[in-house]
Amino acid sequence: MSQPHILTRHMVANRTDSNTLASYEQSGGYSALRKGLNSMTPEQIRAEVKASNIRGRGGAGFPTGVKWGFLAPAEPRYLVVNGDESEPGTFKDRQLLERDPHQLVEGIIISAFALNCAKAFIYIRGEYPKPARRVQRAIDEARAAGYLGDNILGSGFSLDITLHLGAGAYICGEETALLNSLEGRRGEPRLKPPFPAVEGLYAKPTIVNNVETLSNVPWIVNNGGAAYAAIGPERSAGTRMFSLSGHVNNPGNYEIVMGLTWREFIYDLGGGVPDGRELKCWIPGGASAPWFTPDLLDTLVTIDDVGQNGSMLGSGAVVVMDETTNVVHAAHRLVRFFAHESCGQCTPCREGTTWLERVLWRIGHGMGRPEDIDLLLDVCDNISPGLRWPPAMTTICPLGPSATAPVNSIMTHFRPEVEAMIAANELVQGGVSIG
Amino acid sequence: MADTPQPELVTITLNGVDTEVRKGQLLIDAAEQAGTYIPRFCYQNRLKPVGLCRMCLVEVEGPRGTALVPSCTQPCTEGLVVDSENAVVHKAQEGVLEFLLLNHPLDCPVCDKGGECPLQDHTVAYGPGESRFVEEKRHYEKPIEISDLVLLDRERCILCARCTRFCDEISGDSLIEFVDRGNGTQILTFFDEPFASYFSGNTVQICPVGALTAKPYRFRARPWDLEAIESISMVDSVGSKVSVQTSQNQVLRINGVDSDTTNHGWLSDKDRFTLQAIHSEDRLRVPLVRKDGELVEASWGEALELVAERLGSVRGDEVAGLGAARSTNEEAYTFAKFLRSVVVTPHMDAQLDDALSDEFLAATLNRAEINDLETAGTILVWAGDLKEELPVLYLRVRRAATILGATLIVIHPRRTGLSDVADHVFTYRPGEGADTLRRLKAGDGPFAEARQALDSGPVMTIVGRTGGAEDPRLAESVAAFARTLPDAAIMPLARRANVYGALDMGVSADLLPGRVSVRDTEGRTALEDAWGPLPEGRGKHATEILQGLKSGDLKALITLGADPVGNHPQPALAGEAVESAEFVVSLDTLLNATSARADVVLPVAGFGESEGTATNLEGRVQKLNRIIPPPGQARTTWSVLDDLARRMGATLGAHDAETIMKEIASIAPAYAGIDWALLDWGEGRDGVVLPGPDGTQPLQHMPVETSVTATTGRFTLHLGRVLYDNADVVRNSPSLDVLVQPASAAFHPRDLAVLAVQPGDSVRLAGDYGTVELAVRADESLAEGTVYVQANMDNSRALGASLIVQVDAVRGEGS
Question: Measuring CA to CA, which of A90, B358, B418, B512 is 20 to 30 A from A115?
Fold first, then answer.
């Protein structure tokens, strides 16, 4: 099954030094920038991006062109690139940063021109030192080549890009927490409204876009929004990066056209489950996404199809679990992540995620009680009332509700297995205190 | 005062009922006003809402169905449909409470907050019956001292951020912060930096649990044993509204009460913790009479007979009175009436020549209210360091500059607490203020922008003496200029709690009760109709009184809560005056440098022990209430003076404080119509700004510019106040006394080089009134040629307030 390359075309063609300016230019790099700055108006570029129907690749899948349209007119205004890829199982942006940083830089410059921003920031997680070095080198090369700085390519447009490294908090991938972190504050999500497009970085209008989203912009400008929109299903246009991991024969990053089935993705592209074992379930879009079970193998990989089945493509992390997986341990591992990464400012997330984690740990360690199942579900309900999709929240941001997804998933799909685990728990049945 | 514009109204549907509310008002407030209380922890009406605790979640209808939103961050818009009581909301509230209690220790029986704890109360009202949490709770070291006054128990903390927001938004002392994250989030101070804020007690007051406790109150009482009464703080002239809380006749706690006009609920730690002085072991409990050089206990009869006899043995105008600036209006009025009509002397002063002129303070035109800060376009502060002198006024100015966006100009000889938030800061060498004013008026050089800002009204000017050595006429010159600015409002500053009231009561050489000049013939005649003949001749001010006592022109001195020896700018003169006086009688609560040398000391009731009124720096009359009896045999001041008058063959008619106020209202023009009933506490009852309902102000003081001669001399003195000084009330409050730092002599670093001294070395300062030796400190904010010394310290007092001082390095032996 062959997939067209857009985002990865350059790194696939050059497997040694695709990160350099020379290599990037050789393969046609910065032609979109010339085209955009010399022959297009910001309005025209915005129109092409809107026409491309590209939806944000950071998780929420919001149409990028529409988001850009919300940017308030006040000056200064900022473009911020979210490279805080931190969700377990997600490693797609890393490859784009590391292998094709110029594609991102070009996308940023074009987008900043389209949005009339004179300053852009790239926020990369602190655990990505190599990608950060390469992005910084790309910025430096671009500046030296006249693609960045004052009066870029004689267009009269000027832009500077500052690279900022995070300090190890997943929550800083949430766009308003990212802005706080960038401002030197604690990485805590802000109350919305106001949204960043109105009041973002330093209380100025700000667009926050994901690395992958902006890496698509050069291709869109070169080939036109309509050409991009023509790729894949109508509401899941373009190609998309997926990080496939877990119990598959061919783990790794895949750039695919959406609209294939999960069976095609996991079995044809991913090579299926190793050693002929049975597929038990998979996470279709990152740790926050409710799990899918094999009865959904023939549904389509599109934003809408996944959403209609109660989950999301999210950050593009597909984690495959085979029949050997202990779902309680798996859920505990994910919930532990969210508890560890909770910023702590709002009560249900700070207290609730840790509580879930501790109860799952008990069950996973032979100390579960029959009432723990209802307890877990009710604690989840107090974080995400109704446990519906998309989730309702008693919290400020979706991190808390994210932690309910694995719990709700195992109780929905594997409740007998959890019950059996608890039933096998002799410690509690024997009356041993667990206080 | 600015008019409040008519608010725009919108209709919201709250629990099925259409309700008219103010557009943009926060839902949590709108609902409460409509009678629906929504539980909350992090929301505090004077702090920016943050929506952290999630206790106030309500269900709101939106374009994509209903959603739970925090009502503390939801503004009211037309057509908003809200349910605060349905099953979804109740489930969320129960959930939040269960979450908060997971790790909250159930040590309520030993927690100071137990009994007045929102977490307890909300758990009873909205919480689940029991917890399903069977794991081990979070543990931290039990309380850690984050300052000399405040302890933090992190196990009890529910992380509502009230304390941190208070420090960031209100006081500006950002000394506590969230550290760590998630389940390990906690409030802490920064490394090696204690929570040393003048306002730390406010965080204790607004903490919704027992996480922050104040040392002076810890384990002293249970809330249900406390009696409380509303009153006003008598620590300074802001007139902050307080709740005085007692048990078994001991004042155990003073909390701020939210008042729109004055303190917004906040207090300084001095307002809050000087309650310890009320019950000081050193409180005067019995009359003292000097026998064989020693003050010995005497009966009231013996002491008063002696005072009556001695005062009767000299001519009336050989007697002078000082004080009443910390008394109630009723006490001050009785004092003035006693002096003018019983003793028959014109010599009296509520001040010690250490602030501004009586007429300027009492009766200036365009007088400002504190709330003029809320609408001011530009604020000019040319006064003492407000953070040190009038901390609650500092909070209000800071709010205007940081939250309300007023342009703030601060002029003072050094950096002040407001410098960080001011738009324009100017410093000058004491003695060169007139030149600074000339340059400001002209918009000269660096003053250009500030001058321009002063054209954007309304302009509120807070003006006072920046230091004890500054010529008070400078402040009047500033006020004269300030009057010419658009929509000018002027607040002339003095610090002592009821100095404005005492002046209004006529404890002044220049003023008769009710803002009447002694030169006002009509006013005099009217007063004589009530009081009988008034003394002739010009009255002496404090310094003249002391000079008169020293020279023998005056024979006797009566002090009422005043300490000229400790506080007058010329301490040596004051000492000699008291020594030379034939007879000195002091009415006071504590023995001070003056009363310790008196012939008779009469113990009087103090704060919380007597009822009455006081008039704050706005001219706002408010009620002071009594909740405990005075200690020992101490009596109210008015009853002592009434008794004394009777023994001198006269009558004052001072039977009780309320009757005295009726007399004041009938005699003092500015107080006409003032009645205690008007001053009852309650929501929105914030006293009365003078002139009262039927009042007039006969004296209209117009500040005038005086040419103050620039002073020459190598060094001029900035004698500035600090909040924690060696005042008696601080000395008698152990919690605060430990915070007092001895005075030092601060110079600009270049002056240190010229003097060839280093920080830590000693210098001798010699002025017109005395000499002291102080350790040297560098202060880059000072102009060269300035020496800054903290006033009213045991080691600086002897210097006095001489503008020009001679500075000499003190060389150790061998150097």
Answer: A90
